[in-house]
From TrEMBL:
Organism field: Bradyrhizobium canariense
Name of protein: Enamine deaminase RidA, house cleaning of reactive enamine intermediates, YjgF/YER057c/UK114 family
Molecular-function annotations in GO: deaminase activity
Top-level taxon of origin: Bacteria
InterPro entries tied to this protein: RutC-like_sf (IPR035959), YjgF/YER057c/UK114 (IPR006175)
Cellular component annotations (GO), alphabetically ordered: cytosol
Amino acid sequence: MPIKHFAPPAGIQAPPLSFAARVGDLLFVSGIPGFDEQGALPDGFEAQFGFVVRNIKRVLDEAGATFRNLVKVNVLLTRASDVATMNALYASAFGPTPYPARTTCVVHALPNPKMLIEIECIASLEGR
């Protein structure tokens, strides 16, 4: 089965990875941080969450998918104190129900010390 890779958008400094890879009807989206269009991390959890959602939407759009195609989401947070805020923002961004299956982990650190959140996900592209 051929694999289609989705490169980071032009101008974005990224580590050596594909933003997403499609295998059959599944799209695996790499962990997406909250970088803005210039590759900077804004201050504050809500701002970073907003850019994470926007960046995931860009990847899904390129693959012909939407948030409704998500089947599994993994959320990585660096602060447990952000869980309640994340849940409220998540409900707004990924709703209405039914939501995709989700795992939320609080981790010691992410690759950039300013990163407060990273989200990876899997989408079904059946029929696309």
